[in-house]
Every structure is written in structure tokens, then in C-alpha cells.
Amino acid sequence: MVRRSSPLDSPEELDDFSDSGSDYEATLKASKRRKRPVPGPLLPKRPRRNAARRVTSSPSNNPIPTPPPDPSLQQQPSSQETPRQVSLRPGRSVDEGKQGISAKDIYDAICSGKSAMVTVVDEWLDSYKQSREAGLLVLINFIVQSCGCKGVVTQEMFGSMENAEIISSLTKEFDEDSVNYPLCTPVPQLKHFKASLCEFARVLVRSCQNSLIYDEYLFPSLLSLLTGLSDSQVRAFRHTSTLLAMKLMTGFVDIVVVVSVQLQTTQRRYDVENSKREHDRASDRLEELQATVSECIENKEELSSMMNSIFRGVFVHRYRDRLPEIRAVCIEELGIWLKTDPEDFLNDGCLKYLGWNLHDKQGPVRLQCVRTLQGLYQEKEFIGRLELFTSRFKERILSMVLDKDPDVAVEVVNLCLLMQQKTEEGLAEDECGHIYPLVYASHRALASAAGVFLYNKLKSVIGSDNQEDNKSNNAAFLQVVISFYIQSEFHEHGAYLVDSLWGVAGSELRDWETMTAFLLQDAGLMYEEEGPLIELMMCAIKQAAQATPPVGRTQGKKILSMKDKKIQEQDRRRITAHFIPLLPQLLAKYSADAGKVSLLLKAPLYFELEMYSSAQWLEKHLDLLLSQICGIVEKHTELTVLEACAHLVTTLCSESYTFSSRAHVAFSQLLDGLTECFSSYLSDLLQGTADDDDTYSAATALKRIAALSSAKDPTGRKLFDSCLELLESGIKSIAPEKELLVSALKCAGLHLMWAKVNAVNSKPAKLELMRLNKEVRSFCQVCQTCLSVNQTEIRDQAFEVLCDLLLLYSESSVRSKPALQALVHLPSDSLRSELAAFLLDYIFIDAEDTELEAKKKEETEISLLQRKRNQLAGYCKLIIYGVLDLTAATDVFKHYSKYFKDFGDIIKETVSKSKLIDPILSAETVCLCLQQLFSEMLTDNRSREDLPEIRDLAKRLAMSFGINLHRVRKPLLALHMNGICFAFRDSPEGEEQHLNVDFLEILSEFSFKLLQQDRTQLADFLKSRCPSAALSWPSVRLYQHSLVARSTSKPREQEEGGDVVSSYRSPVAKRKRTAATGSVSSTAKGSWLTSISIHSNLPSPAFTSTVQKQPTKQPVSRKPRATESDVGTGISELESEDEFSSVSRMRKVKPTKRRMSTFTKPTLDQQDLNSHLNLLSLIEDGNGEREEAEIEDYESDSDPAYTLPSTRHTSASFLDELFD
Question: Are residues 456 and 420 in contact, defined by beta-carbon separation less than 8 angstroms?
Fold first, then answer.
């Protein structure tokens, strides 16, 4: 009898299910076959029934009744005959019978996936009824073939060998050419194999549920074989047999439920009949019902016996198997049992397996656990049985919302919602706090799941007793959303909150009437709530009009369906119709608030602007909007407001709209007024007689002109000369006016850009082109002077304008317009030097620590970094488009490693673009930047201090050459030759010779990308350039080693003990198939066994069915070493893959030396040993544990995979913006 234990104890308590002396062992022994010369009659059922009755009468804590051992069956003798070899014939055995379906027929039907499974099973049942041993043999061979094994079980083997011996023999004949087997082979022919195999098992059980399932021969024999296979070292055997056993168990559970219902019904009818008066009873009817009740009880007990065999013999070992697919299968089927037969399974003894596997280190297993729990929490009648489980594992479930597998995290949030809705206590507020921040996660599915959770929580806050109209409900919902948004303190991420709630709260977020009513009513909201509502409203308008998620949540390019496009068009029309009359009112109310008005100015960008021309009464609203925009420009000087106005001006002045002429007139008048205002102060500014008020007025006017100049052509207002004079005089002054000069730089630069656009679109005279070129040249000289100014804003603006103008007036920009060749302006040498100096002095420097608040300091650092990234991208574009020589990229490449975090994506893109321009020159530029760093190290007398940093940079740059080594062959050859020449360059007279020889250490970082023939060529080139005395120097020897021995020796990192990736020349070597017994490869596998299996720190298992007894050898004394736990789950892996190797016996194997001078004829013992070692190549797939899906450390709290979206652009979108 199984001793009682706490149902939710640690997994180590599974030792209670001891394999030695357990009830299961008796069941297994009872089902072992004796040698049968001829098929005998069916065994009597009475002993099994009596045994089952004894089990039923004894109390047990196990969820499945366990029959005690049958003494009569334990006395059977074991076969002592010598096992025969397995037949290698892949097809049907002659012993299977001359008629009926064969194992290959069943296998082909399963592989095709098109056969009617009922027909296949019926054909097999016909053959089984003719000869049950032959039929069972067909089924066994089908299972063996489904495992991918070429061996066949013959009639002699079936009658004379035990299951363990049969499995060992089959293992020897397993196909070693491939690590794949039908369940995991990714070929179209086996696409439906798993589903068909599961269907076969289901139909087989269903077809036998009324007769053969109780014959005490078919299924006990089948389960005995499957249990042995599930304990095999061979993954294919273990995986396939476990799947079949679990599916058979599911079929048994279904039948048990049916039998239980039938038993209850019959028992009730019996009780009713028995309760009648004696003379009213029908004695024959009563006896019939009594017999039916007895038969149902016997059937249920027999089914429980087989279920107990599977549960104890397969499930409790395989639910923690090393292979995640096997663990997932066990958990999936356990979930089905829990729902199908809750009376027997839905208890803490079975639920603990789900709880333990929530800690599994493989995502698919955790995912299956969570989905199983979802199915349980959906049923109200199960909640009471789940109370102890909920209290024990709720903390773990809540921590999994930050699971590194996004699919798992999504399902966990859905599970938490079910727990919140279905359980009486629900989730406390602090527990809900684990989920709320996920609405801002970058993973859209997770954010949407968190949005559903938040929506239900907010709805419960509003109260279900609120029976008012829909508008009132929407108003209440919007208020609690605003409160949540304010309290969450992520005010820059309203778009992410809206996107998270969009799927579940779309109707509330589209209630524009309620939102605008709140904003226009004086008593609607508090002041601090108006800003968040405007932000959320604008995010909702954008979401509805564009139907695209915010930056960072886009999963590729999504094509909208016709239905989605129709909804999008309807939303745009509704938005336009509602906001056209109300937007001027909103702008008027919030015109003094820069933050709110800059948000409201974005609304017309999502309108169907043609609607302004559709009705005459709407034109007055257009006039009101234009006047409001002009008023806002005249009222504000904040850059965000002016840029929002300029963006809107660009849209409204588009020639595609019929009302664009009215917008042109309005904004032209505005620009004329601003120009007149600026011109009135210009003379005083140039003469230096303007006071502070005049300077401020001129600066603000010029700032507004510069902002609007990006939207409208300013060339007609002739402001360029004025700005240029202002810049020349301002630079000469002692204290230049920052705001004035920055605006002048921007305005003059925009003037020249518009002039180039006009020149491209028209055919200007040659004199006009020469005048424009002169203006560009003079302006670039002024900007070059500004690069030396001590004020950051002026300096930064000059650099950015210079990068834009040099690109716009480059030679590549007029390639398609030869007539504009006179406009080409190339930077002078001094300007190139100034640009490079700016790069080194102001971009590649660490930020200074300033005394600011933490939040303000972070905002300042982000803003500064964004500006630096823009400036670096501008400089890199000059290189990519040929304005600067490719060698100018050395100033960028040399900082790749040090500033990888801030600028790595930009520099990496520049490196890859340079390779497209000129691969060889790009490689030489890479070498040049390393040479410069090496020379600087020697010049600064730092000896070899910085050499590791330079080598790290070389390693990063080497990875940029990609994996197509034939394509980069010439560039790499040029790089190495250049580097060798630099290393042995003659030094000036009076200096030490060959100072640069240590550069070869840096150069060696590129050697692993070389082809073998190039290595030989470079080795010869090195000898020709290197003095004979220098060949023994450490740096030269290291470089020679990288050329000659890298292909056969371990990489440098591995020699130093680090984790490395295999050499590029070949993938990780797979274990080779043994060609002959006793060969060198066989001994190599012996050493692999020694290093992997023998040194397991796990105890020897008590239950191994595939172990071969080895000849006794002298034990090899070894010092035990602590190895990494060979676990497949986060819990104790007592049944892991290494455990199933025969640890206790294999430790007696004496390891064979890898190298032998002579071969002697192997003895019989050696052949047995080597043949067993050969089998170990089947235990795992080709790369053994290296190719195993690595079980990663899972720390859901310390390193979540979800980050809140940054205010910075993502790399992809930012680079697109910078390099387009």
C-alpha cells in the first residue's frame, strides 16, 4: 500500500512511487509473457477480478486504484533461452500471419493521414481475432516502425524474450544515420503523422471498449511494451511510446467515465427494484441488474488497474523527462484527465504535477501547464477543489506574467483573469499590480491580454449596479482610465495604453462626444485630468484613423482586410464630422497651454480633409481653424508648438485639396507680417544699437519664420542675405545672441534647400546657378566658423545644417540633372577636418554629470543622446553618399566597441553600407582605423595597456564580414596584407625597429574568416615580410598559429576556458556512426560516455528496462566532480536522460585509449562493450547535449523580457529615418 504523503510536497517525494516492490511492479510482472509454443485460450478473468475487489476494499491516497500483486502470477519462471538477433527485414515478418493487415500497411496509412482510421483499426481487429498473438505482433511492429526503428520483432523473439531484451535488441538495429524519427521529422510526408497516430490510439481504444479491452491479454501486453520503451535511452522510443501511452490512458479515462455512469444508473435501478415489496419484485430482473452491477464494477476495476500501470509506470517518470516535448505531452494529457474524470483525478495529488511544472525551464512545458489550468479554472464546479492549489501556487503564477517566453506570459495573464473572475477571493490589489504595467509592454499580444485584465478590473470598479445609459457608463469608464493613466506615471506612453485597450474597450475609446463634452465643459474635469484626456483622445483618434499599432508593437507589415479598411474609413468619417466644428473651440480654449494645443493641432492630420469642400457651411470652420493656427503661431515660441503648426500648414497647403489656395493666402499673410517685424529690427541689430526687447522680438519673429519655412517656400522674401549678415556680425561679437543666431542658421539653411528644390523643378539660368553656388559656399564658411563657437546650441545647429547642405549639394544629388553640375559644392580640406574634430570633441565623449533631479537628469540625457545620434547619422550619410572619402569613416569605426550601447546600430549600418560601396576599400578602412588606434597607443607611451580593447574592437568588426566567406575573400586578403605590411614597416632612423609587430595580435582576430587557401598564401606573405629572427616573437607566432592551426585547434576563447561557438569552417561535429566493432570512433564514443554519463551526480535509477549486463571489469577510480544538473525541468530530474543510462553498471567499464599503435582482434567481451557504446549515439540527437534545446536559467523576476517602450525610436525605424 502506498504510504500517505502531503499532496503538494516537493517533487523529491515522488520516491514514494518506488519502482522496486511497488504495486506497479506486481502489475508489470503479471503482464510479462512466458514462452508460448502455441496460442492458448484466453486467460480466466476471475483472478484479476478478485484482485481488483481487494484493491477496492483497501483505502489508498492514490487517485487511481492500485491492485495488489497476484501471487499466482508472480511465480512465473523467467526465460533462460539465448536471445536471438533481430531480423533486419524492414517489411512485414512471415511470423505475423499470411493474411490480414501488416505493420507496414498500418504505418503507411498513418503517414498518409488520409485513410479512415476506423477502417484501419477494424482490419487489424479482424486479424487479431483470427490469431491474437499474430495480431499483437503486427501492432508491436507498427509501434517499432513508428519510432523510426528498422528492426522487426519476430515470433520467436516475441515468445522467448522479455520486453527488456527485445527493446535492447531493437536498439542495436536502430538507424544511426539520422537523429530524426517520425514524430519530429520535418518533412511534408509526415506532416500529419502525430495527429494520425493519436487518432489511431483513440479509435483503437474506442473500438475495443466493450470486449477486447477486458481480455487481459491485448492491452496489458501492449502497456508492458510501451512502459519498457518509455524507459529507453533512445529518444525516439521514449517519445513515441510515451505519446501512445498517454493517449491510451485518455481513452481509458473516457471509458471509465462511461462505465461509472452506467454503474450509477444500474445501481439506482437496482435500488429502486430492491426497495419494492417482496411480492412486487421481479427476481429475474433483480438478478440481471445485480449481474450488470457486478460486471460494471469488475470492468471499472480492470480499467483502473491498467490506468494505474500507465500512471505509475509512465507518467510519474516521463512528466519530468529531459525532452520538453515529452513533458508537454504528459501535462497536456493530464489536463484532459482532470477535466474528463474530476472525481478520480481532480485532487491535490494530481494537481501538484501542474504546480511543479510551472517551474519548468522550457517555455512549451510551462505554456501547456498554464493552458491546462485555464481549462480547470473555467469550470465553476472545479473551483472548490482548486483552493489548496491556488493558495500554494498563486505566487508563482503571478511571477510568470514576466515570463521570458511571451506566449507563456500572455496565457498567464489570461489565467489570472479567470482566477480574478471565478474564485471568490479573486486577486488582491497588490497582486493585480503585477499585471497593470504590462499594458505598456512592447509585446502587443501580452499588452492586449493585460488590457483585457485592466478593462475588467476597471469595469468592476465602476460597479455592476450602475444601470444608467451607455453614455454615463462611458463617461465613468473614461474617468477611471484617466485616473489609472495619471497614477501609472507613464505619461509619454498614452498610445500604448490605448492600443492595449483597443480590442476590448474600442467603443468607449471611440466615444468622441463624451470626450469633447468633458473638455468643453468647465465643470467636467479637474485641471490635471484635462491633459491626460487630450493625450488619450489624440492617441485614440490616431489608432482609429490609421489602424496601426504604435512604434515597437508592429509585427511585420500587416495588410488590412476589407472589413478592417471599411471600419477604418467609417472611423475617419466619424472623426472628421465630429471634430470639424469643435476643433476651433478646443484650440481657442487651450491656446495658452503649449502642451495641450500641440496635441490638438495633430487632429486635422487624421481628418478626411476633402470634407471641408463638400459643404459650404463647413468652409467657415476651415476659416476658423486657419485663424486659430495663425493666432497660435503669433502667441507661442515653444519649438514643439511651432513644429506642430508647420506640420499642419504643410498638410493644409497641399495641392491635392481644393481649399489649399485659402490656406496659402492665410499663411502667406502670416509670414509677411513676421518678415516685416524682423526687418524692422534688422538695421539696429547689425549696428549693435538694439536693446534687449528689440533683440527678443527679432529673435522670436525669426524663430517663427524658420519654423514655417520648413512648410512654405521662403525664397521670395529675400531673407538669406539678412541672415548671413546677422551671422557674420554675431560671430564677431563677444557675446553672440544664442536664440537669434540659431534661428538665422536654420532660416538661411532652409532658404538654400528650397532654392535647390526650385532649381531642380525649373530651368534656371547659368548666372542664377553660379549665384546660388556662391551663396552656398559663403554660408558653409560661416557654418564652419560657427563650429568653433563656445555655445552648444549654435555649434550643434551649424553642424546639422552643414551635413544637410553638403548632402543636398553633393555630386550624387545632381547625377540625374547634368545641367545643375554648377551647383555641386565639395567640402574643403579644412571643413573636413572641422567636421571630424566635431565628431571627436562633441559626439564621442561621455556625458558630464550635472546636479539635476533624477527624472530631469534622465530626460536631459535622453535628449542629448538623441541629438548626438542625429549628428552622427548626418556625418555617416556624408560618407555613404560619397561627400567624404571612405577613409573618413575611421573616426567612426574606431568607436564601435566603446560606444556600442549608444551608437552601435548606426555604426554597424555604416560599416555594412561601406562594404556595398567598395568592399576592398572598406576592409582597408577597417584596418586603417585599427592601425590608428595602435599608433595612438604607442604614441601615448601606454605600451600594451589598450591592446585588449583594440582586439575587442577588431573582434566586433570581424563579425561584420558575414558568413559568406567567398564573397569577402578579397577584402579580407587585402586587410591582412595591409596589416602585415604595417606590422613590419620600417621605422624612422634612430627609433626602435619593428615597433608595430604587436599589431599582428589584433590582425589575428580576422583570421577565422579566411579560407584555407588564403591562409597558406598569407603565411607565405608573412615569411617574406618578416625578418627571420622575428619568427620566434610571441606576436608573430600567435598570428601564425591563427593562420595555420585555427582550422584544427580550438579557438582562443576555448583555450582560455570561455564558451565559444564552433569554427566557421564546419558546424558542431556530430558523433559519427561506428563503422566497425572496436574501431577508433567506438573508443571515442567510450570517452564521450565517460565524460557525460558516468560522471552524473544523480543516483542510480531503480527502474531501467533497456540495460544490458556488461562483463565485469575492474572499476576505474575517479574523483567525483560536480556537474551541471542534467535537468529538463526546474524541479528534480530523477528520471532525466542521463539517469536512464546504466550508471551503476557502466561505471565498471574501463575507458579505452583514443590512440592505439596496433589493433588486436577484439574479444567477445570487447565486442559487447563496444556494441553497447555504439548504442549511446542514439540516446540524443546528432550533437548530443550541445544540440539539445538548452534548458536556460529562468528568472522571471530579475530579468523580464518585457520593457516599457522607450522615448527613443527603435533601431529599425530610426535607421530608416536617418539613412533614407
Answer: yes
CB 748 within 8 A of CB 724: yes
Q: Is 63 in contact with 347 (CB distance < 8 Å)? A: yes
Task: Return phi, psi of residue 159, to 5°.
Answer: -90, -25
642: part of which helix (H) or strand (E)?
helix 639-652
Q: What separation in angstroms does the CA of 562 have from each of 135, 180, 567, 569?
A: 56, 43, 9, 11
Residues β-bridged to residue 174: 149
Residue that the C-alpha cell 547642405 belongs to: 805
3-state secondary structure of 545: helix
- Angle at the Cα of 869 from the Cα atoms of 868 and 875, rounded to 5 degrees: 90
Question: Which residues have CB under 8 Å from 1063's CB, separation 6+?
Answer: 1008, 1046, 1047, 1051
pTM, to two decimals: 0.73
Give me Rg for the CA atoms of the chain.
40
C-alpha separations of 1213 from 130, 547, 550, 909 in Å: 71, 18, 12, 13
d(CA 443, CA 407): 10
Characterise 230 by phi-psi region: left (phi > 0), alpha (psi -120 to 50), beta (else): alpha
Three-class HEC string of 9-74: CCHHHHHHCCCCCCHHHHHHHHCCCCCCCCCCCCCCCHHHHHHHHHHHHCCCCCCCCCCCCCHHHH
Closest alpha carbon to 1130 in 1188, 1186, 1194: 1194
Could you give the C-alpha distances from 253 to 198, 245, 339, 740, 946, in angstroms and in order? 15, 12, 10, 84, 70
Q: Quick one: cell of 575?
A: 472623426
Calpha distance 795→793 (Å, rounded): 5
Relative orientation angle of helices 527-546 and 562-589, to the nearest 10 degrees? 150
Q: Distance (Å, rounded) from C-alpha 355 to C-alpha 1130?
A: 11
Cell numbers 483505502 correspond to what residue?
A: 59
| Lookup: cell for 258 | 462511461
3-state SS assignment for residue 768:
helix
Question: How far is the C-alpha of 464 from the C-alpha of 458, rounded, in Å?
Answer: 11
Cell of 259: 462505465
DSSP lists the bridge partners of residue 1038 as none
CA distance 134 to 136: 5
CA dist., res. 971 & res. 492, Å (int)? 46
- Packing angle of the helix pair 512-520, 562-589 (nearest 10 deg): 10
Q: How many CB atoms lie within 10 A of CB 921?
A: 18
Q: Quick one: which of 474, 546, 463 has its CA closest to 505?
A: 474
Contact 553, 447 (CB under 8 A): yes
Specify whether the CB–CB gap between 958 and 1007 falls below 8 A.
no
Distance between CA atoms of 1039 and 1042, rounded to whole angstroms? Answer: 5
What would the grid cell of residue 1158 be? 596496433
Selection from 710, 711, 634 nearest residue 674 by Cα: 634
Chunk the chain into consecutive blocks of 10 residues (it has 1220) and report each block's average pLDDT, rounded to whole numbers.
Answer: 42 38 37 38 36 34 38 35 35 45 88 84 90 90 88 86 87 70 80 88 90 88 91 90 94 93 90 80 84 91 92 93 93 94 91 93 94 93 91 93 94 94 88 92 93 93 64 88 88 89 93 92 84 94 91 77 90 94 94 93 93 84 93 93 94 90 92 93 87 91 93 89 91 83 94 92 88 93 92 93 93 84 91 93 79 70 92 94 92 92 93 92 93 87 77 91 89 92 76 78 90 89 85 88 61 38 35 36 32 31 33 38 35 34 33 35 40 37 36 38 40 44
Alpha helices in 435-526 (DSSP H): 444-462, 470-488, 494-509, 512-520
Sign of CA dihedral 1095, 1097, 1102, 1105: negative
Residues 772 and 752: their CA atoms lie apart, in Å, by 8
Residue at grid coordinates 627609433: 991
Q: Detail the DSSP E strand segments found in 337-449.
A: none
Determine contact, residues 335/297, Cβ cutoff 8 Å.
Answer: no
